[in-house]
Amino acid sequence: MRIITALSSTLDAYSDTVGKLLAWLLPLLMLNTCAVVFLRYGLEQGSTFMQELSIYLHSTIFMLGAGYTLKRDGHVRVDILYRKFSPRRQAWVNALGTLVFLLPLCGYVVLISWDFVSHAWQIKESSAEPGGIPAVFVLKTLIPLMAVNLAIQGVAEFCRSLEVLLEAEAPTHG
Questions:
Q1: Can you give the pTM of this predicted structure?
Q2: Mean pLDDT of 20-34
């Protein structure tokens, strides 16, 4: 049981660290977006680089933050029945959902995006727009990284569910 708890804690700490680091990108995204709007509508100037930077920042926050969002239970859940379940039944739903849906989906995303991302790296794909960011290959790398981060937190959630299920099975001494 201690191994499961330690693994869950370690993976949670990873997701927390990623989430806190990503939070520092939010003010940058906000400032960049304000600057793009000011340049465009205040000074009638455009900056493709800055517009694409907003896309890169938003994509990084959204894609790499998926695991952190799962940890914080921030994903959409249809819980008409779930919220009425006992903690043990909720643990069963979470464990099975992770094993049957989440982890296979994450594996599929990594598998299906691998050639797409590899090709982008091989040709060092850059923006098609003049003055754009010459690192589209880095942006595309977020796809499998998102799946890996989500899978890491999925394993942590599975461990937490397993803890609840194992505690319920443990004999009480008294």
A1: 0.85
A2: 96
